[in-house]
Amino acid sequence: MKNLKCDVCHSDITTAINQRSYMHVAHRELCESCYEELNFFLRPIIRTKQPFNYEWFDRLVKDSVEKAITRGKWDIR
Ligand SMILES: [Zn+2]
Question: Which of residues 19 and 2 earns the better pLDDT score?
């Protein structure tokens, strides 16, 4: 059992059972609720990107996570 803290909201993440309670994204640890926030934030942006580009997406995820860490919340725009 590992004790991790979410890089964005700093809440404790327990990984006792499986990896469903935390997500490893862009070399950061995110709790499940922050991961959902990330997806919620990214969804409308991804919809505007045609055609979809995986490198662009990677960078978007990383930048979004880093901004959220800096601000401590998902108010990214
Ligand atoms: Zn979190």
Answer: 2
Roughly how many angstroms between the first and final C-alpha of the chain, as a whole number? 36
Q: Rounded to the nearest 5°, which phi and psi values hold at 62?
A: -60, -50
Q: How far is the CA of 44 from the centre of ligand 1 (A)?
A: 21
Rg (CA), the chain: 13
CA of 10 to the centre of ligand 1 (A): 6
- Give the whole-angstrom CA distance, residue 27 versus residue 3: 17
User: Is the model's pTM score more than 0.85?
Assistant: no
C-alpha to C-alpha distance for 39 and 55, rounded to whole angstroms: 17
Q: Please report the pLDDT score of residue 73 as a whole number.
A: 81
For residue 76, pLDDT beyond 60: no
Which is it for strands 12-14 and 22-25: parallel, antiparallel or unpaired? unpaired
